[in-house]
Predict the 3D structure of the following.
Amino acid sequence: MKIEKNDTYGVYVHIPFCLKKCSYCDFISYPGLLSRADCYLEQIVLEMEHYRGLCADTVYLGGGTPTCLRVEQLTGLLEKLRGCFQLTKDCEITVECNPKTADEAYFKRLRAAGANRLSIGIQSFHDEELSLLGRLHSAKEAEKCVKDAKRAGFANINLDLMFGLPGQTIEKFFESVRRAVDLSPMHLSCYSLILEAGTPLELRIHSGELRLPEEEAERAMYHQLVSYLAEHGYAQYEISNFSMKGFESKHNNKYWERKPYIGLGAAAHSQIGNIRFANPPDLDAYVKIASLAPLEGRETETISPKDQMAEFMFLGLRKTCGVSQKEFNKEFGLDVRKVYAKQLKKFCEWNLLEIDGDWIRLTKAGMDVSNSVFCEFL
Amino acid sequence: MNRLDKIRNFSIIAHIDHGKSTLADRLLEKTGVLTEREMESQVLDNMDLERERGITIKARAVRLRYQASYGEEYVLNLIDTPGHVDFNYEVSRSLAACEGAILIVDAAQGIEAQTLANTYLALDHDLEIMPVINKIDLPAAQPDLVAEEIENVIGIPAEDAPRISAKNGIGIDEVLEQIVKVIPPPKGDENAPLKALIFDSYYDSYKGVIIYFRVKEGRVKAGDVIHLMATGKDFEVVEVGYLHPSGFLKCEELLAGDVGYLTASIKNVSDTRVGDTITLKKNPAKEPLAGYKQVNPMVFCGIYPADGARYEDLRDALAKLQLNDAALVYEPETSVALGFGFRCGFLGLLHMEIIQERLEREYNLDLVTTAPSVIYKVMKTNGELLDISNPTNLPDGSEIQYMEEPIVKADIMVPTEFIGNIMELCQDRRGVYINTTYIDSTRAQLHYDLPLNEIIYDFFDALKSRTKGYASFDYEMKGYQQSDLVKLDILLNGEMVDALSFIVHSSKAYTRGRRIAEKLKASIPRQLFEIPIQAAVGNKIIARETVKALRKDVLAKCYGGDITRKKKLLEKQKEGKKRMRQVGSVEVPQEAFMSVLKLDED
């Protein structure tokens, strides 16, 4: 693998610690292991050494709950990152956080350490929904968190919301949406609840104890959300993401645009050129390989040209602007209309895709069934 | 004593699970031919499948040596019989090779439908019946009651019936003593022209076909040229002998009264039909033994490989199974929905299930089967008479003058408390009530004439579920009867699915069409467009369901750049689509084809 020195990278750091696992979560996170955080952070510092000197224009501290660490642990990490990578002037530095784990003072110190974007996991402004999701905070605490962040000087804030929750009505969902919009964040991520097998929430629904809203209702939530947010100045730029103009997430865009990124920490993924590799999710396993050279001890996938094209399509089509035919043709030297002639014909006929000049994109109907469309590009 | 006086030829008859194989094992053990350690349990049933199902599919014969209590040594030929209605003809030929039969009755369960059916079969062959009451060690055993039942229902004395536990080896000596005492020795002139009855044959890859037979008259040895009187084939005998529990034992010759095997470099079991008479080319018998008939398949279905690429494998597997099963017939057929496969004919339902299971297990094939069908006789308006076993071949209604369907005579044994349920079921299946015979105060036998096509779907399951599993069932062909039959077609998104068509009585078309539409609705996943499911008779739609279009199919948050995982999820989804059958633009999972085979569930 050749690491291109002249490229600009995204850097993702995974903080696999939480106070408590949420009922829907199947991400890699270990509640109760906070005592191991110092040792873990040391390993991250060793791991990043292999990339010393590379230029980065986004940094993303995700989790888990990064803010469940002590603030000096996070600021220390940011300092190390700054010392290791050449961060661009306008570098987007995002920290994920959960209400109740950070207050104004905490945010101030993060801000001072260079963080300039916060992504706050609000999920809902109804306490009963929050407790159903296994969140530790209340709606009130969520509001306070956002206000604290603003007071601490964060202008670029994302709020995460979820819909399609058990027992949720359109009305209830919109109460949450309105309260989120009232806090005027620059960015909103709104995810349809996906039940992951084996999570406590999935088990409760599977057993019939809880019921998901009807699909029609769930889709109505989504469709009304898109219009409501548009009316309030938030443009949809990806299936689940909305922002004020110029406040799209630069880091997440890298995934959809197949730009290179470096993942540090347990379970973190990297993509450099046509190689994607993943750190082991287990803490001990990660500690063992952290200091090894990039591909060593890591699960590695060399992306075939066919898969590169498929990824170009199914990642790019997540964005509302879609994929550029010119860009595809330039990158692969093949005509996208020929490579995917069958799929494009079928899905355009079925009104799930549309071709608009240079752009191929999902229609509104296509967004609802995007998986069915994507999988045929594989 | 002459030679014949020291021979006893007998079978064991019983209802499934009443302990036939276990008693056979004990007899083998007691006659000293096998030590316990050497003995694999249930040596007579040597196919795994048979063992698992507790039934015996192919008859075998074993020679035992028994030293009677007064010192005389006897040769006991135990001829095993298949225990199921589908193999009635094979059972009848095995019985025809014997002079007597041990009738096992379970001391806890008493007489069952097959006990009676097999006993009557044995009585038809003038066999001496020797009742044995088994499982006397069970807590629920009521041997006195069962003995009384045998006397009352079958009308044979049972006060001397050995009361045994084959499982625990209790009373086996008494069984052996009684075999010698009760069952008559064979008769037959060893100097008359050869007449030997084939009661089983199977293909062995080393020896070719091995024929099991009973010499009724005359003698046969290696080197003789035999003539098979029904098939007309001649073969030179390579080897004669008998089956010892430990394997084949060659001998000089077999004489009238003997039971044994021969090999003659025969390639095909269809040349050695069960029931045929073996004689010698030189000095042949004038007439064959009575009772030969060619067994014909009664139940048909289409069998397709789930993976179209394995068509050749399926063909080879069927060819191999047929080597040992002359009753299995098949011919290639194609279905628009299922591709290349075979229309296969079976003796009955169990036979069909056994073949399907053997294909899946022994040949590791994944199968899609169509609904079973019977042979309908179709009189066309132009006077032509057709046999139709594949609904797709049914001529247009305007060309049909009338149709006939096969009817069976069914005997259903049932605890009296469930008589109502079973009558309801039989009525629902268009049965014609004949009468009821009471076995005792708790059990009765219901006699019905039933259309065969009503019992090939899920009659067994329905019977069991309506009687908490207590009913037992037996049937035989009665004949054909004119009937108001129609072809029911299933349309998906307006396109007919040939593999789902079937022939049904017009009074049942609506209910069954609706049920199938419901089943299909439940098993066809939602797709990107709405799929109407229609059941139609001719041009008339009689039932309709709709699989609504998929409204939502979105992936979770693209998390931390784990695109590999996301791709895998999409790949899995795509794989799932691949395994489905394409019917027009609709993707139909294999399960959908299978789901319509069990309509009685839920």
